Amino acid sequence: MANVYNWQLGRDMNYRFDPAAPTWQFAAVFNTNRCLACQTCTMACKSTWTFSEGQEDMWWNNVETKPYGGYPRHWDVKTLDLLEQANPGGQTWSEDAGGPEAPYGSYEGSTIFDAGRSVGQHALGYTPTDEEWASPNIHEDSPVSQGALAKGVTLPVHETWFFYLQRLCNHCSYPACLSACPRNAIYKREEDGIVLIDQERCRGYRKCVEQCPYKKPMYRADSRTSEKCIGCFPRVEGSDPLTEGLPMETRCMAVCPGQIRLQGLVSMEADGSWTHDPDNPLYYLIREEQMALPLYPQFGTSPNVYYFPPRWVPRPYLRQMFGPGADRAIEAYVRPSRRAQAVLQLFRVSQSIIFSFEVIDGEKVNEINVNGKTMEIFNDTVIGYGRDGQEIVRVTVIEPQFERPDQFLNTI
Questions:
Q1: Between 20 and 30 A from 170 (CA), which of 54, 147, 260, 263?
Q2: Domains of the chain by residue range
Q3: Are the beta carbons of 328 and 334 closer than 8 angstroms?
Q4: Based on the number of CB atoms within 10 Å of its own CB, is 3 exposed (0-12), middle (13-18) or buried (19 or more)?
């Protein structure tokens, strides 16, 4: 076991391998407040990568309804329970944030790697049953109800609630699947941090399935190997002719009708820290505004997919799922700064990956009251740039409106 620093936990932790950072890290931000659960992303991934025989139960991308839904069933509850059994009552966080190196404070409990050592494993985990893999849409749209329908609903927290959680491989900085593999068949690409399985080395031992807490490696019985999300790396490399060589968003990101997804690459330092780059939209939203949070950071894998927490859900549930930064993230989302208002317009406006942005000031167009505080709205323009500094997209905070001339009346 090596000693590595996990900034999401604000402390050192145990991991099988010495720290090694890619040049760029694949990352994404999801806005759970806007998801339609239309499953367009799910079917785009399925029709591209997992449509073959033996892959019927593989859903590398899925959207599940929380708190009851999950694929496989109960994947998060079971892992949380295993951590609690290994360290009863100890899964706590310090209350104070510790700056850039510990933005959410310090996690004082056990990670899956810490707990795994006590049972002679690289990470604590379990293997889902066939029944748990059988229903990818189990409990869709099933709410928690506390008899509040007669009273109606009000923000900031609803008494009857559910929300949609969009999931794919997190391409973690400390992948549990990678540390678990007896064959060393799993690796992180140096150029973009995408985690892949070498099919020629894999022998289907399923240790990756067991020890990944997010259950994103999946066993394929006909080939007797494990497979997982590949981050659409041909698109991220820029080999798709559609963008003429520019790095491109993944399939699940590019098709989103609700415009809830923003995927890109963040620059990494040799020690595994993120290069300070507040003009990168992902860095800005995750590290500067702290509006987007990792999913179950207490697992210890340092996932690189981040979420805007849903603002109507009871806060204790969100703190368990996204860590102690949930309250601050919601506050930053419901009353965004002027710069953040502009950056939020970049979600799903281009298939090309945006590496940096610039905001051009516009006129003030409105002033509204949010939770008793005044928020000014400006019609600023945000420009997104590619890796080489070329302009990719230009949008305004206020969406332009166009009225059709009278001669184009609907005659149906």
A1: 54
A2: 2-343, 344-396
A3: no
A4: exposed
* pLDDT one-digit tens code per residue, 107-166: 999 999 999 998 899 999 999 999 999 999 999 999 998 665 556 677 788 889 999 999
3-state secondary structure 200-233: CCCCCCCHHHHHCCCCCCEEECCCCEEECCCCCH
Compute how many other C-beta atoms are within 10 angstroms of the C-beta atom of residue 286. 22
What is the four-CA torsion angle of 336, 339, 344, 347, rounded to 10 degrees? Answer: -160
What is the maximum alpha-carbon separation in the chain? Answer: 75
- pLDDT value of position 409: 65
CATH number for 2-343: choose from 3.40.630.10, 3.40.50.300, 3.30.70.20, 3.10.100.10: 3.30.70.20
What residues does 306 pair with on adjacent strands?
Answer: 29, 294
- Does this model's pTM top 0.85? My answer is yes
Q: What confidence tier does 98 reach under pLDDT thresholds 50, 70, 90?
A: confident
